[in-house]
Automatic annotation (TrEMBL):
It catalyses: orotidine 5'-phosphate + H(+) = UMP + CO2. PANTHER family: OROTIDINE 5'-PHOSPHATE DECARBOXYLASE. Keywords: Decarboxylase, Lyase, Pyrimidine biosynthesis. GO terms for biological process: 'de novo' pyrimidine nucleobase biosynthetic process; 'de novo' UMP biosynthetic process. NCBIfam families: PRK00230.1, pyrF. SUPFAM superfamilies: Ribulose-phoshate binding barrel. This is Orotidine 5'-phosphate decarboxylase. Pfam families: OMPdecase. Catalyzes the decarboxylation of orotidine 5'-monophosphate (OMP) to uridine 5'-monophosphate (UMP). It is an enzyme of class 4 (lyase).
Length: 224
């Protein structure tokens, strides 16, 4: 089994990110580079981390009109990410154009409902359905648009998996038992997410902010 853990390198310093990546590379399957890192270091930064030798997940959460998102996908093509995110709420046409622009060898997955949101947050946005129904609805839209899968929390992944059998499901908001939750609201353990159908486990602070990141990554890997 390939290691499903992707370490989120959410840090603005490229040297620190590279040191962290080198340290933990034996215990993770790849690295996730998001807005904090990409806004600071762009293409150069992605190439630096790619040199460590593991797959790169570019978590840019693209969300704009179809033409703009397709252009952004083409602009990151040369970086050869193994997976890129767009927001499902950008709509079907946007997701279709993103997938077409991504080309072969790059999975495109849609963020459904951020793991930092709760049912209460949905209501504040005027959405009256449950979190699970909202995630299932957006997953169906992403499936229809031809995407490879979605990003959701471990609370919904089982239901999504039973609705979309061959989908690829990325699950962040993961916390080993007893670790600090921080700003995440819908959390489960890495093992629970994997058992429920997650294909990729995105983990940041429980590893990157641990006193001993190598031991933290090793311990999580051992639970899977
Ligand atoms: O719904 C989402 C989508 C993406 N993320 C990203 O995952 C990591 C989680 O980091 P932790 O430190 O383990 O909380 C982070 O990079 C987010 O941008 C998410 O958390 N939820």
């Amino acid at each position: 089994m390939t290691n499903p853990i992707f370490l989120a390198l959410d840090m603005p310093q490229i040297d620190a990110a590279k040191v962290m990546a080198e340290k933990v590379k034996a215990h993770v399957g790849g690295f996730k580079l998001g807005l904090e890192f990409f806004c600071a270091h762009g293409h150069h930064g992605v190439r630096e981390i790619a040199q460590v030798g593991l797959p790169i997940f570019l978590d840019l959460k693209l969300h704009d009109i179809p033409n703009t998102v397709a252009g952004a996908m083409q602009s990151i093509h040369t970086l050869e990410p193994s997976i890129v995110t767009v927001h499902a709420s950008g709509g079907r046409a946007m997701m279709e154009d993103a997938k077409a622009a991504a080309g072969d060898g790059c999975k495109v997955v849609a963020v459904t409902m951020l793991t930092s949101l709760s049912e209460r947050d949905l209501k504040r946005m005027g959405l009256t359905s449950s979190v699970e129904d909202q995630v299932l609805r957006l997953a169906e839209l992403a499936h229809t648009a031809g995407l490879d899968g979605i990003v959701c929390s471990g609370h919904e992944v089982k239901a999504v998996h039973s609705q979309w059998k061959d989908g690829f499901f990325v699950v962040p908001g993961l916390r080993p038992a007893g670790s600090a939750v921080g700003d995440q609201k819908r959390v489960v353990t890495p093992r629970q997410a994997r058992d429920d159908g997650a294909g990729m486990l995105v983990i940041g602070r429980p590893i990157s902010r641990a006193d001993d990141p190598v031991e933290a990554a090793r311990a999580i890997e051992a639970t899977l």
